[in-house]
Amino acid sequence: MSSNILTVVIPTLNEEKGIQATIRKIPKKEIFEMGYELEVLVVDGNSTDSTRSAAEECGAKVIVEKNQGYGRAIRTGMTAASGEIVIVCDGDATYPIELAPVFIKHLIDKNLDFVTISRLHADKMDSMSLIHRTGNKILSASMKLLYSINIKDSQSGMFLMKRGFIDSINLISDHMSLSEEIKIIAFSFFPSDELDGKYYSRLGEAKLRTFRDGLSNLMFLFKFKKFLKRSLIQKRNSTRIANSQLSASHKQADYEMNMSL
Ligand SMILES: Nc1nc2c(ncn2[C@@H]2O[C@H](COP(=O)(O)OP(=O)(O)OP(=O)(O)O)[C@@H](O)[C@H]2O)c(=O)[nH]1
Ligand SMILES: [Mg+2]
To answer: N or C: where does the chain have the smaller number of CB atoms within 10 Å of the terminal CB?
Structure first.
C-alpha cells in the first residue's frame, strides 16, 4: 500500500457547532483502505468561540490566520497541506465529505486535476435559501457567459485537486471569490469536472454576507477576465527567472492590487 497523503483543508470562523461533525464525517477507514494517510488542516480566522480546541480534540492540525478572509484561509491551507490530493470543504457540516472516496476515485480514474462538488440537485434543496439559489444561478450564468465554463454551482465550497494543480497556479482572492476563481482557472486550463453532491443544513451561523459577497463575486468575474492568464505559474529557466524577477514581482504586486476586492 502506498504512503500517499490526503489533506482535508477546512476554513473556519466561529464554527464550534459544526467543526466536530464535519471532521467526524470524514470516512477515515475508507480513506486508509484506499491507501491514503489522512491529514486534517483547520485554518481558523481567529475564532472567538471554541472552534480551535474542538478541532484539535478531533485530531485536526490547526493553523490560525487572523481575520484574513475565506480565500486567504484556503490559500494558506493549500500551501501548508502535505497531501498529493487536497480536498476543501466548509466547517459547518453542509458538504458531503462522507462521499470523499467516490470523488477521489473519479479524480484519479478520469485522470483529472480538479473536481468540484455541486450542491444544486433536485432533492434536499431546502438547505439553500431561495435568495442564495437565485444569486448562485446569476453568478454561474455570468461565469458561463464570460468564460464559457458550464457548471451548475460556481460557488461551491467543496472541491478536490491534485498537488500538480496546486503547484501550477497563483490564486489571489482573499474572500469568497476564491471559490469561483479556482474553478475558472481549473476549467480554463486543466482537466476538470463537476459532480453532484449533497447539501445539508448548516450548523451554526453563516459568515457569508449575501448581498455584499454576491456583488463582490459578480464584480470579480468581470475584473478577473483580463488577468486569467497570470493565474498560471510560468515555468522558466533559472537565468531568465533571475533576470526577470524584479519586473515579475512588480507585475505580481500590480496584479494583486488591481484585483483586490
Ligand atoms: N479562516 C476563515 N474562515 C472563514 C472566514 N469566513 C468564513 N470562513 C469559513 O469558511 C467557510 C464558508 O463560510 P460560510 O459562512 O459557510 O459561507 P457559505 O458556505 O457560502 O454560506 P452557507 O451556505 O450559509 O454555509 C465556513 O467554514 C466559515 O467558517 C474567514 O474570514 N476566515
Ligand atoms: Mg458554508
So the answer is: N
Q: What is the mean pLDDT of residues 51-72?
A: 95
- Asked whether residue 2 carries a pLDDT value surpassing 50, the answer given is no
13 lines ligand 1 (CB under 6 A): yes
254 lies in some domain: no
Domain with 149 in it: 4-232
Tell the residue number behind the cell numbers 524577477, with chain if given.
245
Question: Could you tell me the distance, in angstroms and rounded to a whole number, from the CA of residue 126 to the centre of ligand 2?
Answer: 14
Q: Answer whether 64 contacts ligand 1 (Cβ < 6 A).
A: no
Report if residue 45 sits inside a domain: yes
Ligand 1 closest atom vs CA 65: 1
| CATH number, domain with residue 228 | 3.90.550.10
Q: How far is CA 93 from CA 89, 144, 192, 237, in A?
A: 9, 29, 25, 45
Count of domains forming the chain: 1
What does pTM read for this prediction? 0.90
In a domain, 141, yes or no: yes
What is the residue with the minimal CA distance to atom 26 of ligand 1? 90
